[in-house]
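Work Package 3 committed the consortium to producing structural models of liganded targets before the mid-term review. Because experimental data for this complex are still outstanding, the team generated a predictive model from sequence and the ligand definition alone, so that downstream docking and mutagenesis planning could proceed in parallel. The input record is reproduced below exactly as it was submitted to the modelling pipeline, together with the SMILES string for flavin mononucleotide.
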Amino acid sequence: MNVLGIVGSKRKRGNTAALIKEAIRPFEEAGDTCEIINLGSLSFDGCHGCEACATTNRCVIKDDMQPLYKKIREADALVLGSPTYFYDMSSDMKKFIERCYCFCTFHKDDRSLWYSEFEKGDPKYAGVIAVCEQKTADNLGYTGVSMRDGLISLGFRNVFLQGALHAFKAGEILADQDQMALAYTNGVALRGTVLLARS
Ligand SMILES: Cc1cc2nc3c(=O)[nH]c(=O)nc-3n(C[C@H](O)[C@H](O)[C@H](O)COP(=O)(O)O)c2cc1C
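The resulting structure, written out as tokens with the ligand in place, is given here.
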């Protein structure tokens, strides 16, 4: 099995990174192929809206997203995580999801009809993790749901949406045993779902 974690925070030792690592740990323990990508270490643009991908499903922007396309295509499961920035995902995560537009194909005459290439082969699975500083869930805003809905529109089945509250300083979430345990449990559920579907 192949799982890819995508960290939407530039803080490599931040809360998002810690929770994604924990959600990936069940895959690691089982000997699966695992990789965690820090979007903050990459140089890439948001979607240019050029529509060059419309007939090819290939993005023409030559930047650090290119190697990621192959990794996404090869993954059985993705775990996306982002800090809450003003009630929504980080700009890096937004750029990442925008750039996945190339996986979609629209009907040439009726753009209300469209599908993602991931709806054609083996189903892919996902989970999302949102982290914010404040203590109540309303402060997460759209962070988790917009990542989840983006993934769903890309043909993924989303297995979990974890919202972690009250974590401000980088790595502070490591002391939150409930959230760390939940991230691990969510990883177990994601892996179990893929296994069941592939059995
Ligand atoms: C630009 C910016 C905007 C933020 N907006 C919010 C917010 O709207 N609500 C909130 O609760 N926390 C907000 N925060 C706090 C972060 O979500 C919080 O520190 C989070 O744990 C950071 O995750 P990281 O360690 O993975 O970077 C913001 C932080 C920054 C830098």
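Reviewers should note the following from the model. Residues 177-198 form the longest helix (22 residues). These observations will guide the Year 2 experiments.
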